[in-house]
Structure formats: structure tokens, C-alpha cells
Design goal:
Elements: E1 7-18, E2 21-30, E3 33-39, E4 42-47, E5 51-52, E6 57-63, E7 69-71, E8 74-76
Antiparallel strand pairs: 1-2, 1-6, 2-3, 3-4, 4-5, 7-8
């Protein structure tokens, strides 16, 4: 069985904020979970209520071609 890998979501973006600095990032999936590319080849999970898996980074303005849902505090592709 092939290992899961990050797949870019075409036409999807998210704005990340870290210590008052904002940047636009691409959105990826791994399974049905959504991630943002934090740095080249590094991804952070998007969590409900604008949280991420990186403690000092939050997100806003998630724009995807599909609706998103939350499950267990995670942002997922339905």
C-alpha cells in the first residue's frame, strides 16, 4: 500500500499569522485533514477556532473550493 502524501488543493488558500506577520499559504490534504504549507516542504495542521499544530501560528480566511467541517477539533474535507 502506498504511503499517504500531501496533495495540493487547487484554488485553495489560507492566511497564516505568526507574531503579527501575515502570509498567504497554499492548502494541502493528507487523507481528509487540511494543512497549510508553512515553509517549503513543511506543513502545519489547521485546527478549529483558527488554531494550528504550530503553537505560535494561527489562521484566517480559509478559501477552498469545498465546504470544510471540524471533527475532534481538526479542520477536514467532508
Amino acid at each position: 500500500m502506498a504511503a499517504d502524501k500531501f496533495n495540493v488543493v487547487d484554488d485553495a488558500t489560507v492566511v497564516l499569522r505568526e507574531k503579527g506577520i501575515y502570509k498567504q499559504a497554499s492548502v494541502f490534504t493528507l487523507g481528509n485533514r487540511l494543512f497549510a504549507e508553512y515553509r517549503k516542504g513543511q506543513y502545519i495542521a489547521l485546527i478549529s477556532n483558527a488554531g494550528t499544530s504550530a503553537p505560535n501560528v494561527s489562521w484566517s480566511d480559509l478559501d477552498t473550493p469545498f465546504n470544510t467541517a471540524t471533527r475532534d477539533g481538526r479542520v477536514v474535507k467532508p
